[in-house]
Amino acid sequence: MQGHGSGRRAAFRFRAVGVVLLVAHLAFVCWLTLRPITVPWVTPATFEPLASIRADLERGTWEGVRSIGSGLLLLAPMGILLPLAAGRVVTNPVTSLFRAVFAGAMTSLTMEVSHSWSTGQVVNIDGVLLNTAGVAVAHLAVVPAVRARLRRRCETPGPAPLLREEGTQQVTRTIPRVGVAP
């Protein structure tokens, strides 16, 4: 059991780092997206899926790529930071993906609804779709590979058997003990 203590401390540190980075990222995203913007006019709220993406692509390829890219990248780190904060190395990959995508979708939906309270911001359903897709893509691109690497790294050969045979007699392996101080 002595070797497990450092592994638990390392897992706790990874979780703590994941939680701190997740909170910092979400604070930055909230500041970035929910601050008031001064604009001469405000477009109406868009509840038709893919309507604003089509409009951005009609304005030009560069505008469409910029809009789609910013939507995908805004919450993409959540797809990596949520599993890091959870600290599960051995888990069902589909369940992990579902958890991350669901949390990303709910965060994005909350942000989009909060836009209606901010000056110059409007609700756009395409933002929810792009943010959720960004979380899914980041999760699929990074988390399974990192978990596989961590599982390979943590795999150690099993403990030596307590009994072994030498010739015809069995010898019991002795386990060194730490003495107790007086």
UniProtKB/TrEMBL annotation:
According to the record, the segments passing through the membrane are 12-34, 67-85
Domain VanZ-like stretches = 23-142
Lineage: superkingdom? Bacteria
The parts of the chain that form a coiled coil are none
Q: Which UniProt keywords apply?
A: Membrane, Transmembrane, Transmembrane helix
| Pfam family membership, one | VanZ
Q: What is this protein called?
A: VanZ family protein
> Species name for this entry?
Streptomyces pactum
Q: What is the lineage of its organism?
A: Bacteria, Bacillati, Actinomycetota, Actinomycetes, Kitasatosporales
